[in-house]
Amino acid sequence: MIERINKSNWGNFFIVQSYYFQNDLFKAEKILFKQFNKNIEDKKILDIGIGIGRTTKYLSKKTKTYTGIDYSEKMINTAKTLFPKLNLKVMDAKKLDFPNNSFDFVLFSFNGIDCVDLNSRITIFKEIHRVLKKNGIFMFSFHNYLSYNKKSPTLKFTLNPLLLIVRMYCFLVSHFNINRYKKYEIKEKLYGMFLDGGGGLFNLVNFYIIPTFQKQLLSKLFKTKLYDTQGNIIINKKKFFNKENWMIYAICQKKIVVK
Ligand SMILES: C[S@@+](CC[C@H](N)C(=O)[O-])C[C@H]1O[C@@H](n2cnc3c(N)ncnc32)[C@H](O)[C@@H]1O
């Protein structure tokens, strides 16, 4: 059910439109893309959960072999209007329609992986591991459970009557969604799934995970390093408690798994 709620969020007209306002790379992405440029430039890239293509703009300029996917048809259709010449497809990360060892670099940006539950998360890691080439790199970000703060809808006053109506509408819809979806929240020791903004409408149940548990989950398949929102590697675990590290970046190098 959670995955159905989240998938419908990504098909919502207003959510799709809101992505037009987020079209630059984040600070950590700028730094890490530069740092791992040798794994990106002229390499085979798979960009998962592209939305309308925030990262497409940068990565597709770096290589001729760029593929972007998203399970939301609305997102992909919008992305195709912005990047008509690129290879963009509707596809779910849980079932990647590519042969083994296809890509040098796989990205799942802006916590897109947090739209699925724990079992599906593990399935996605296995799929990404399968399609990565030897020594390939998987980069993603996730919500940090150690800096989780419960969010509630707010109504900010404005003298602009049209904007006020939009804000009131969002406020009411948010409360309606909280009443409908609150029962699907999950609270465990090492991870949780909580109702979140989702473009301000509280119709997204996001996964939050303790970073060391995230690393442990990846450890059979990948050698992983974690980075903060400034693009610095995290060595001191105290950093996980900083409010500004509400999201953590992971750079994962494919391990060869002997069965
Ligand atoms: C937070 S948005 C990020 C969009 C874009 N990457 C960006 O940074 O602006 C997450 C995106 O991941 C997509 N997504 C979530 N789960 C997915 C899955 N299992 N397979 C493919 N795409 C998925 C959503 O449709 C949505 O477009």
What report would you give on this structure?
The protein has 259 residues and is of the alpha/beta class. The protein has one domain (2-143, 210-254): 3-Layer(aba) Sandwich (Rossmann fold), CATH 3.40.50. The chain has helices at 2-9, 13-18, 27-35, 56-62, 73-82, 118-131, 161-181, 211-218, and strands at residues 45-48, 66-70, 87-90, 103-108, 132-144, 186-187, 191-196, 204-209, 222-227, 247-254. Strands 1, 2, 3, 4, 5, 6, 7, 8, 9 and 10 form a ten-stranded mixed beta sheet that branches. The relative contact order is 0.16. The model has no long low-confidence stretch (mean pLDDT 92). The structure holds S-adenosylmethionine. S-adenosylmethionine is lined by residues 10, 19, 22, 48-51, 54-55, 70-72, 75, 92-94, 109-112, 115-116.
Regions with pLDDT < 50 over 5+ consecutive residues?
none
**Assembly state:** single chain
Sheet with the most strands, sense and barrel status = 10 strands, mixed
CATH class: Alpha Beta
What's the architecture in CATH terms? 3-Layer(aba) Sandwich
Helix content: 25-40%
- Assign an overall shape: globular
Q: Overall mean pLDDT score? A: 92
Q: What is the overall number of helices? A: 8
Radius of gyration over C-alpha positions, nearest whole angstrom: 18 Å
Q: What small molecules are bound in this structure? A: S-adenosylmethionine
What name goes with the CATH superfamily?
Vaccinia Virus protein VP39
Total discrete domains: 1
Number of strands: 10
Give, in order, the helices and strands. Answer: HHHEHEHEEHEHEEEHEE
Strand-pairing-aware structural class: alpha/beta
First and last CA, distance: 33 Å
Which percent band covers the strand fraction? 15-25%
CATH topology: Rossmann fold
